Amino acid sequence: MSAPAAPARPAGGPRRVRIRFTKQGKVRFTSHRDLARIWERALRRSGVPVAYTEGFSPRPKLSFGLALSTGHESLGEYLDVAVRDTPELVAVEQLPALLATALPAGIEVQSAVDLPRGADSLQQAVTSCTWYIEVGDVTPSDATAGVSRVLAATELTVTRERKGQPVTDDVRPAILDLRVLGPVTEVSAPLAPRATGIATALEAELATQPRALRPAELIAAIDPAWVMARVTRIHQWTQAGGARREVIDLGPAATPPPHAEARAS
Amino acid sequence: MTSVWTQLEPHLAGVERPARYIGLELGAQRPDAGPGAVSWLLTYPDTYEIGLPNQGLQILYEILNERDDTAAERSYAPWGDLEAVMRRERIPLFSVDTHRPAGEFDVLAFNLSAELTYTNLLNCVDLAGVPVRAAERRPEHPLVAAGGHCTYNPEPLADFLDFVVLGDGEEVVSEITEVIREWKAAGRTEGSRAAVLRALSHVEGVYVPSMYDVEYDGRHLRAVTPRYPDVPERVEKRTIADLAQWPYPRNQLVPLTEVVHDRLNVEVFRGCTRGCRFCQAGMITRPVRERPAEQVRTMVADGLRRTGYDEVALTSLSTADFSGIESVVQGVVDDPANCGQVSVSLPSLRVDAFTVGIAGQIQKARRTGLTFAPEAGTWRMRQIINKLIREDDLYGAVESAFSSGWRRVKLYFLTGLPSETDEDTLGILDLARNCVEIGRAHTRGVAVKASVGGFVPKPFTPFQWFGQNTVDELGRKISLLRDGSRKAKGVQLTWHDPKATLIEGLASRGDRRLGPVIEQVWRRGGTFQEWSEHFHLDLWLEAMAEAGLDVDWYVHRHRTEDEVLPWDHISAGLHKDFLWQDWQDALAEVGLPDCRWTPCYDCGACTGYGIEHVVASATPPAGGSQGTGQDLSTGAHLPGSVPVTLRSRPLAGARS
Fold this sequence. Notes:
The complex is a heterodimer of chains A (265) and B (656). With 265 residues, chain A is of the alpha+beta class. In chain A, 17% of the residues lie in helices and 33% in strands. In chain B, 32% of the residues lie in helices and 14% in strands. At the A-B interface, helix 1 of A face helix 1 and helix 9 of B.
């Protein structure tokens, strides 16, 4: 592999690269664990000199952010890769093209940046996510009523399993934004089978700290009868100077709304 | 070309592990070969996780897709949750490559590697929308075919298969494709199905069950004879002479989700002449054909680079026997392109210190467990099965493993072997206990796992005449071992369910009369029978009783020399009198060295096909005793050579 001069290695620590990518279409049915293995192999195939852990069973040093549930799509997933300091060191700008042929259809590298030394991990950095959620058999007016009820509530308790034990939490503080986008005009293929042929799209910004609220938990909390269909993670937000921004911002033109997105495969 | 993807997609979020239904593997193809092309759906009748790595199907997938006039796709048995959705929503079986309905293909070709998948084959055919019985299919239906080791006795599936392919598939699939292409070109007219099957029966290596009549003499088989003069009386298996001409798979599939044997696999040779008498694979794949070492190196280097795998397995029936194995594995380890992060695995280790030495060189990391297969607990028993491993070989191997840093050793054994006594059975525990003792000198966390399977006699082996042990007898032997293992610290015993062994035995040596039994078990929901949580012995016993068939007669009865066996009209190249002589030698406790390095026994595999062993080295590999000219007069322990005190062997019946 021929590579132009790589950026100088930050003093005192291993070089870390943060990659932003999509997960759309058929490949969304792979699990978080599958995705990690897909990345390990893709990086090896591309000749990216990934650093390995020390010890008995060396593993590539990859760290992912918040796991995306199997079946959900995303317009912005993240991965941090520790890279060995070798002559083959690649400039980050080259990574999207280099990885394009090594990844399955539906996983597209949008951007890669070098991380400054001591940068927060993805788990620490991401504070909330914006989700596009389609619910089946629910009219926009019913959806609006449900959303209003939730937003008016001061407390919204859900019982969920944690380490095999039922735990009751108030998830209302984790709902940072919730609104009805309107009816789903074009019935999308991944929508679960529905009795009425009606579906409504919602958008929600859900906190990830101290504990992430998942779309499925939100929908169950609004109305247990609602059937969640297509779900897409649109943004992952971090805090900088009191304002939120994308973990890697692709610029205003780079993020089309999900319903306009050409679906992979 | 149609696709069921849009019907399927809404349901995938609700089933277990949906990634197994999406395809998209590295190396997957979306063939579009035009309307006249012959299309094959290569199907493994078990889950994607088990079926995807199957090398036979991957080889044929590539060879068929390299032809301009042929398209091959893949399918696997859907798990029960998706099957329920498919039946409810009327979604047919589909290919994972383009999600094309199975019924649109010209051939549904199954790999049969295990008897307990037979009901899954019927289920897949039914899900494809094709009648399960061959006689009920019409010209618009695909031809249903099978290949793989189980097809050396295809008779239990004769009612359901249009044709069967015996032996190596590399060459014959193209010949079959030619015949089917002509059938398609002629329009697959009414009544043409019998004609295309008749034409297929002329292809060497192809067996068409419907072209044969079966006569019985009471319970016994009298003869299986061709119905037409142009149909062969005996169908010979196919054998490729030179593995070097077939460097497949060139583009091994890399799945997106975890599967078994999830690594690069490079076949280093095919066939085996060690002559283990229980081993069907070793008998039916003869002669030995090695791949040139240089080609192995190229396939490993190219494969690792292309796939991104960090593990490569050098596969064969006994990889330590490959000529120059040391230099090949060392080359992989030392290749700077691998950055020291590639591990090599040898899935079938021979039981000797030499082999462990190789393993030590190549498995620098992840030194967790080593597996050996002594197969039987006493030297007498190992002579009978012709697995000529001396206790010293095993102890040397285990000593070498523990002293090189391994902490866990797994030992594979069979029980229910011909003339096995309780002393032989309990010998398993002696070996395991002694291995624990050897390990204690090196590590405190020593674990020796003894895995015990019930022996199933297989067609085309010297043991094909042997009456299998009953469920009760296998259960009694396992109980003997369980009782003994409670007092054996460091020995962990695992065993195979004797009830499943019974049904494997039934299907292994059954005849055509089992067809209705298999169909009945399938109709009552008996799929995924090799999965212990889905296996139902009662379904089989009820179906046998309803068909008026006697399990005991099929499974537990010793056969006589003059008996017509259900697979006598099939040939694996082996002379029946060679197998009978080897059976008599077994009963006389006589071992037989490996014919690669000693004179020919005229088993028939080389002479019959005019093919010879392809072995790069004229001398036996280092290490190991079998067939290497070493003194085999005693397999017992030689005093002083093993640094432990060996326990005296408890006699059966003397247990407290």
